[in-house]
Amino acid sequence: MEKKAQAWGFDITIAAIIFTLAVITFYLFSLNYSGEAEESLGALEYDANTIANALLSEGYPAQWSSENVIKIGLLSDSRINETKLLSFKELSLSDYPKTKSIFNTLHNYEITFSENMTIESTTITSIGLSPSSPQNLIKVTRLATYDNKPLVIYINVWE
Hints:
By secondary structure, the protein is of the alpha+beta class. 47% of the residues lie in helices and 27% in strands. The protein has one domain (2-158).
């Protein structure tokens, strides 16, 4: 009889240890998981604001082209420059990874506008990739002037 009681006590001890380890693992995982999501969204928001600020500048050099661009900017005299906009569109189509490198981001982006713009018989509705099934997406909105009218620029950044 004594042997059965001792075996039963040993089983309870092992079960309690396994249960305790499972609870500790669950709490550690759940605490770390939420932190990773916040860091990811913070990085996306930072990249979206960085891209928006770069686009609403003159860029560098001031009269940049796809060959010499260091910083992509769309403005000249506080208005959207059609030549820069068209150059940016062409650069994103021909070498999207280069534009991501210039913006210093690892995330994908898409820039859309509140109105379609036609420049030299090219209609521009968006620049960059379209999000197909993003895991996390941040949208930043900026206001600019195009053709003496207000224009809303939407910057989507996602993983």
